[in-house]
Design a protein that fits this description.
By secondary structure, the protein is an alpha+beta fold. The protein contains 3 helices and 3 strands; from the N terminus they run ββααβα. It is 30% helix and 26% strand. Strands 2-1-3 form a 3-stranded antiparallel beta sheet. The longest helix has 15 residues.
Length: 97
C-alpha cells in the first residue's frame, strides 16, 4: 500500500486559447505558485502573454501515484514537438518518482 502524501496533480489552462500548457504535481501551494524561478522557460513565456487558470485534477495522492498520473496526462495531451498534441514538452517534464 502506498503512503498518502497529500500530493496533488494539476494543470494550467490558457484563458486565451483554452489549451492546457502545463501539467504538474506537488503540494497544493505548488499548483498556484507564480515563482518564475521555479517554472520552466515555456511556462514563463506563456504566462507573460496570457492569463491562466489552475485546475486540480486529483488530491490526496502518494508521491508515486501523483507521478504516474502526471506522466499519463502529459502523454494524453500529446506533445507539440512530436505533433501528437498541444502540450509544450521541454524534454524533462516528468517528475522523478
Amino acid at each position: 500500500m502506498r503512503k498518502i502524501d497529500n500530493k496533488v496533480v494539476y494543470r494550467h489552462r490558457r484563458l486565451d486559447t483554452n489549451e492546457i500548457f502545463y501539467i504538474g504535481m506537488g503540494y497544493l501551494k505548488r499548483a498556484y505558485s507564480k515563482d518564475a524561478a521555479k517554472r520552466n522557460q515555456i511556462w514563463n513565456r506563456i504566462v507573460n502573454k496570457t492569463e491562466y487558470k489552475v485546475e486540480i485534477v486529483a488530491e490526496n495522492l502518494s508521491w508515486e501515484d501523483a507521478c504516474e498520473l502526471e506522466e499519463f496526462l502529459i502523454l494524453l495531451y500529446g506533445r507539440k514537438d512530436l505533433k501528437t498534441g498541444t502540450f509544450p514538452f521541454t524534454g524533462n517534464d516528468f517528475s522523478n518518482g
